[in-house]
What we know:
Strand content: over 45%
Number of strands: 8
Protein name: Lipocalin-like domain-containing protein
Order of helices and strands: EHEEEEEEE
Number of helices: 1
Strand order of the largest sheet: 1-2-3-4-5-6-7-8
Distance between the termini: 31 Å
Shape: globular
Helix content: under 10%
Structural class: mainly beta
Amino acid sequence: xxxxxxxxxxxxxxxxxxxxxxxxxxxxxxxxxxxxxxxxxxxxxxxxxxxxxxxxxxxxxxxxxxxxxxxxxxxxxxxxxxxxxxxxxxxxxxxxxxxxxxxxxxxxxx
Length: 110
């Protein structure tokens, strides 16, 4: 059986979040989430490394991930998921372990 192409590979620009405004998302650098050999993300003062797997749910790919990193030098971790919408945007949710959670929207960087 042929393996499906990983549509998530690449860098995605975070364009909107439920809990934080865009000025905060882009505080240190343009907010992003990236999937590939070195998967990571950054928004605000939060940076993290991602471990992910792709599952197929009702015929559509969904990326499930856990993450660990730091927020203003404090260690933090959590989980999340993402899917690619019909318009090509990446939509998902990121959650801190025992803390905040937020949906996010992203556009693929060229």
